[in-house]
Design a protein that fits this description.
By secondary structure, the protein is an alpha/beta fold. The chain has one domain (3-151): MoaB/Mog-like domain (Molybdenum Cofactor Biosythetic Enzyme, Chain A). The protein contains six helices and six strands, in the order E-H-H-E-H-E-H-E-H-E-E-H. It has helices at 11-14, 22-32, 47-59, 79-86, 92-101, 129-151; strands at residues 3-9, 37-43, 64-68, 89-90, 114-117, 120-125. The protein has a six-stranded mixed beta sheet with strand order 2-1-3-6-5-4, sandwiched between helices. Helix 5 runs antiparallel to helix 6. The longest helix has 23 residues, at 129-151. The two termini are 19 Å apart.
Length: 161
């Protein structure tokens, strides 16, 4: 996978009240996996801004978009809803794996979704940096497979597609 777009959603970090720790942590890990270009956006928990950024990434044909934050039960946690308005097809198994193998009971409280828009895979991750890193590590083999299948024009998918 050559490109990943990372969107971190946090009202407080976007206002400069604390430093975003998710973006540098995930960027470093992604680069360690051979991702050549990681672009990043930090924004408040605003569904309209998120939808606009997601649609822009889809238009630029970014293979994988990761969001961090906004998947909980708070009134401003609307990342899954904004993501659903952009994706064309859901891929629930990836989030099911993350919730089942996440290692922390609160993983089951995540409302994260994963899906496909055009030739882009979009996955919601936790806003907690350590949890987001655990989640991407769990999902990475599935994500690389999904992107590879999605990017093969005119070819049938693999044995499990």
């Amino acid at each position: 996978m050559d490109r990943v777009h990372l969107i971190t959603l946090s009202d407080r970090a976007s206002r400069g009240e604390y430093q975003d720790q998710s973006t540098p942590l995930l960027t470093s890990w992604l680069e360690g996996q051979g991702v050549r270009t990681v672009t990043a956006a930090l924004m408040p928990d605003d569904p309209a801004l998120l939808e606009q950024d997601l649609l822009g990434a889809v238009e630029r044909s970014i293979p994988l978009v990761l969001t961090c934050g906004g998947t909980g039960f708070g009134a401003r946690d609307t990342t899954p809803e904004a993501t659903r308005r952009v994706i064309e097809r859901e891929a629930p198994g990836i989030c099911e794996l993350i919730r089942a193998k996440g290692g922390h009971p609160l993983a089951f409280a995540s409302r994260a979704v994963c899906g496909i828009a055009g030739r882009t895979v979009i996955l919601n991750l936790s806003g907690r940096p350590a949890a987001a890193l655990d989640q991407i590590q769990l999902a990475w083999p599935l994500l690389t497979h999904a992107v590879a299948v999605l990017r093969k024009e005119g070819e049938a998918g693999g044995p499990c597609t």
